[in-house]
Amino acid sequence: MQRLLHRSQARPAFTAPAARSTVVAMIHDVDETIREIVQRHVLNGSGVDVSFEAPTRDWAAKQSGPALSFYLYDIREDLNRRLVDYVETRNSEGFVTERRQPPRRYKLSYLATAWTQRPEDEHRLLSAVLAAFIRSDILPMDVLQGSLADETDPVKVTIALPPPQDRSLSDVWNALGGELKPSLDLVITAPFDPARALEIGPPVLEEPRLRFADGEGRREEVSGVGRPAPRPATERTPVAAEERQAGATESGRHLHTQWLPRE
Known about the structure:
Elements: E1 2-6, H1 26-43, E2 49-51, H2 57-62, E3 67-77, E4 87-90, E5 96-100, E6 104-115, H3 119-133, E7 156-159, H4 169-176, E8 184-192, E9 197-199, E10 209-213, E11 219-222, E12 236-238, E13 243-244, E14 254-255, E15 259-261
Parallel strand pairs: 2-3
Antiparallel strand pairs: 1-10, 3-6, 4-5, 5-9, 6-8, 7-8, 10-11, 12-15, 13-14
Helix pairs in contact: 1-3
């Protein structure tokens, strides 16, 4: 048996997916989120400066007042939380309009240090920073800045945990060329949209129509509901009952007596 599939040439109206902006300012938004938390829960209106520059000797020499430094020294993806399945986006009619990779999670590691004239003041500032970020493992929505405020995935935070074996804070200080100071290792895990999407064609709204034909030219057309399509009464010819056809399916299909159009 030969089996042919016919589809309608006319394509239905299709609603294209709306353009989705790529999160390109994720790192900056994490910086601003840290600044918001520090100003709200640590400084309380004091004149302490918040800096994201590398705390080198030259930078320390230029400081005229107390400062908190949050130096971003490492960025790496959290591979344990990567999702590989594409996420479907559907329109108001329920049709799939696109398939996108879910956001990836990146760990941003900051070296938090306090810079004042007295070690006691530095310790107080570091204690306040520790208390501000240890409150919860997930940052509250009201402190998230920029694109992070629109994300549905939580922004996780850890502070003062032991660093991985392949990373040492003493190596960071050696790279900065400065003296070792008391510091906190602040890690923010934030989502980042890779903007990878698969194109989706318009949906098929018409039921398929199948046409069966044997070696003798006898044909049968079946619509999507599985019933033979109606044929004019003047163009019918009988087919022998229970006749096994050459080229039938593996299960040994028989053609029963039916009225088929005369070709």
